[in-house]
Amino acid sequence: MSIHHQAIIKEGAIIAEDATVGPFSIVSSKATIGSRTRIDDSVLIDGRTTIGKDCHIFHGASIGCIPQDLKYAGEDTDVVIGDKNTIREFVTIHRGTAMVGTTEIGNGNLIMAYVHIAHDCRIGNHCVIANSSALAGHIIIEDYA
User: Fold this and answer.
1) Catalytic residue among 40, 60, 96, 119
2) Contact 89, 107 (CB under 8 A)
């Protein structure tokens, strides 16, 4: 495991031995990061977030923060990200709400810079989401979109 000495890894986080975490990144105590996943600098992995293997998360991404939903009351909800995803600069992915509970990203997706994926979204496999797109809560995108 290659964790930069200026990264903050909260006690309880599960990080694969061959994953990397860059400087100034923060990984929550409830996060799980898979094999060969690369987290660049200044990334926030918050809450109960699971990231699969062979993912690359670029500078400034924020994953697993609380949803922007007035009904959210602090429930312990999730973000689940599959394998082989590329998540570019300054992407935000919010955790689910009590209604659904999980925001899900499948396998092999390209999520370009400045994309926002709100609470309870489900993104299938092998999708491309273009720069600066914003998905409201509960959006479903099927495979190969």
Assistant:
1) 119
2) no
| Catalytic option among 120, 126, 138, 143 | 120
CATH 2.160.10.10 fits 2-139, yes or no: yes
Question: Which one, of 136, 98, 102, 101, lies nearest residue 116 by Cα?
Answer: 136
Known active-site residue 120: yes
At 34-71, the pLDDT tens digits run 999 999 999 999 999 999 999 999 999 999 999 999 99
Measure the CA–CA gap between 145 and 142, rounded to whole angstroms.
Answer: 6
Show Cβ contacts of residue 114 under 8 Å, excluding neighbours closer than 6 positions.
89, 90, 91, 131, 132
Q: Is 116 a catalytic residue?
A: no
Is 137 catalytic? The answer is yes
Q: Which one is catalytic: 22, 52, 124, 137?
A: 137
